[in-house]
Amino acid sequence: MGFSLLIAILFVGTTAFWLSQSLERQFETQYQSLTEMFAEQAFLAVIARSSFGDSDFDPAAVERVVESLVGGDIIYAQIVKDGESVAENSKIDMTLDTTPVPVAMTMTPQQHTDGLRYMEFSRGLLGRSGDAASYIRLGVSRQPLQAALENQLWTLGWIGLAITGVGALLGLGLFRGLWLPIRKLIEAVKQFGKGDYEAKAPVDREDELGLLASEFNQMASRISEKNHELEQLNVELHKANRTKTEFLTIMSHELRTPLNAILGYAELLHEGKFGPLNEDQDRPLRRLLRAGEHLLSLIENTLNFAKLELGVEKLHIIEVDAETIVRECIEQIQPLAEERNIQINLDVESVLLQADPMKLKQILLNLIQNAIQYTQEDVVYVSSGQGDCNVCFKIQNPGQAIDSGELGNLFQPFTRGKDAPRRSQSGVGLGLTVVERYTKMHGGSVSVDSAENAGTTFTVTLPKQHEGSELNELKSE
Known about the structure:
By secondary structure, this protein is α+β, with helices and mostly antiparallel strands. The protein contains nine helices and 14 strands. Strands 2-1-7-5-4 form a five-stranded antiparallel beta sheet. A five-stranded mixed beta sheet has the order 9-11-12-14-13. β4 and β5 form a beta hairpin.
């Protein structure tokens, strides 16, 4: 509809301009010729005869010729000789001027006081250039020209309206036959893109659009079937993953119980509860205790990860002292540091925060143990500090930096870094995963900075006030 209207407007506008120019040229050509004829007759009748004293010169006859010219489109005619009007006639109330005019043909648009628009044609009777004191003048109304142009414009308007109507009908047919099916196909594609795999495009034609809609429907059906299969497979995978996690939970729990008993008896033997031990007996017993503690740490991380995966791990928030928690962790891990001749440089301050003490200890133990295993020097730095609303724990091990390609996956489950020179025991790659998830459960964050020749620093930031959890009635001792 809009296109056909645009075509009609362009057609009417262009044609109207061409017609107006054509009619204007015809008008000017016609009355220029009439003015030239009138000038020739006036020259012969007035100038030539009066100059030679011709007795046939009749002023009354000249007046009658001028009067015969006035009528129809011509509203006045005038003959001027030497600045004086010798014959003139007008059918409208106006005073004709006798001012000299150019010798050449001139056309001047004029408008009468009553609103009548006309064109004045003038032509000199003597001379070849400059102004002439003897000339003729014709006034020709433009109303017939304007009426002819208006008639042409009305005709063009009806033609344009007809073009618009025909274009609208063609556009409606095109819309119903082509655009509407395309729109329906587009809507079907949009619905399909939003996840409605049952969306179908209507197939009610046998041309290319019908073939396209049919192919889309077949493709949508195949994708819907594959999506259904993937959903079923995803359900099975979730079941298998949950079964695996439950198995890990059960096995970790069952392994931890006898391992605690083994470590307990080994500790009693080491303390001499069953008799004194010599040096050859004490050395392997200490190694047995360290290996058992490492195995217990692996089991603890596996059990914690399994609980996190199952969504059954909960926080037990109480008010704890950051310095107390850190020192308990150092006391627990000190034998491992002594065995590897590593000094733990401690710089902590006493500050209260709301946290789950067991999970906070697990966070710090995992990070300190990692630092001991990976440090390339004989020292590990552990520090804590506080801001207005949070507490920060930093664990730094000097030495080689972590490869930049590993940093992005550092907290992913079962991810293990490259072997360090002091590393003698392996893990399952769950320690840092447990650290990150326990930290997020507290509403905090964990970050890592690693630079060549500066080592690696892990920073755990926890809020002092834990939101969304009520404090237990038990307080830390």
